[in-house]
Structures are given as C-alpha cells and as structure tokens.
Amino acid sequence: MANALLLGCTGLVGNEILTNLLLDRTFDKVIVLVREPLPFTHPKLEERVIDFQNPSEFDQAMEGGEIIFSAVGTTQKKVKGDAAAYRKVDEWIPTKAAEFGAKWGAKSFLLVSAIGADAQSKNFYLKLKGEVENKIKQSKIPCIYLFQPSLLLGNRKEFRIGERFAQWVFPIFHWVTPPKYRGVAAKDLAKAMIHFSKIHKPGHFSLTYSDFFPPNP
Asked: Which residues have CB under 8 Å from 113's CB, separation 6+?
C-alpha cells in the first residue's frame, strides 16, 4: 500500500489518473493539490487546497506523497500569450513538486511531458518541457518516469479547434504514423503511468507511445 500525490487532477490526463488511483487497491490514500475544492469526496481522497506560488505552503502540502504524479499544464490561450505566466504553471509547479517531494522522501515521480522535449529546442513549448525534465532529473527522487506523448486524445473542458481537427485526422493515419508520434487517449496514458508507478526501478526513464502499452504479465 502506498500514498499517491497528484498535481493537475482537473485536467484531461490528471482526471483519468485520479479516477484510476481511487479504484486501485495498491494505493490507500490519494492526495490531490488543488487551487479550489473539488466537487466530490471519496474515502481515499485527501484534498489540499493551496497557493502553488507560495513556496512554504507548497512545500508543506507535499508531505506524505510517496508516489508523485504531475499532470499540470496550461495553454497560451489561458495565459494570453504571457510566457512568464506559462512558466508559473508548466515549469514552477512540477519542478518545485520534485524538489519538495524529494525533501519529504518521495520514492517515484511521474511526469506528463511531451514528445520532442528538448532544452535546446528553438520552440518555446518543447524547450520548456526539456528544461522541466532536466530539472526534475536533478532532484534526489530515486525513480523518475518522463512520459512523452504526442497528441492527447479525449474530451477537454475547453474547446480547441486545432486540437479537435487533429483528433479527427490522427486516427485516419494512425498506422502510417511513426509510433512515437501517434496520438494516445488520455485514459491509456493514465493507466500506463499508474502501471509504471508500481515499478520502483532507480533511474531516469523517458517513455513514448510504444512504452505506454506494456505487455500483460
């Protein structure tokens, strides 16, 4: 039995992770860090409402998280193109979670990153994802899994016309698309993350599409 701690539980992937964690008997407690209270409760769920930009508050909220899942993320639309505001979510939250989690003795950290993440990229998004990965790998958490999906498939709360079009097109060309660039359903990515969270193998591991579907034992 273990305690899971989840960041980004209201997002596309995070919501799927939360649903599966609450049903998984491997975890006896699921801690979620949120800005606002969730509209439901569960016997295994421990909700911690915090200000993520308050380091002391964030630090204390990480206590007890043995297996950390990070599925936080924003969009350029939400931050109105403000790069600094974008970093406050996509960089500050996961990297500080790793830093504070290590302090509290976390065993594993599982991050939703992106295919093509590269700190040397000229693309802002991919550069940021690469920088985040590098900072998390520098933490003292012994087991780190970096999940690098391409297009995430699922029903988001907000409407994104480009993404909706891509979700329609991707399945048509699925089998001729190189595996690592194939779209993956959020529910499948969530299941993969929970699967790997139970494999406590020391090191840093980057996983792409083909890794998200491990063979059945």
From this structure: 129, 132, 133, 146, 147, 148
pLDDT in tens, 11-44: 999 999 999 999 999 999 999 999 999 999 999 9
If one counts the domains in the chain, the total is 1
Q: Does 217 reside within a domain?
A: no
What's the rounded Cα separation, in Å, for the pair 19 and 81? 31
The answer, as to whether pTM is greater than 0.85, is: yes
Q: Is residue 117 part of a domain?
A: yes
In a domain? residue 10 = yes
CA distances to 51, 77, 119, 144, 192 from 74, rounded to whole Å, are: 16, 8, 19, 22, 22
Q: How far apart are CA 45 and CA 109, in angstroms?
A: 19
For residue 87, give every residue at least 6 positions away whose Cβ sits within 8 Å of its Cβ, in sequence order, or none.
Answer: 128
The Cα 84–Cα 82 span in angstroms is 6
> Does a structural domain hold residue 48?
yes
Pairwise CA distance, residues 116 & 172, whole Å? 22
Q: Which domain holds residue 44?
A: 2-209
**pLDDT digits over 67-99, tens only?**
999 999 888 888 888 889 899 999 999 999 999
CATH code for the domain in which residue 169 is found? 3.40.50.720
Q: State both tokens at 30.
A: 């699921």
DSSP 214: P
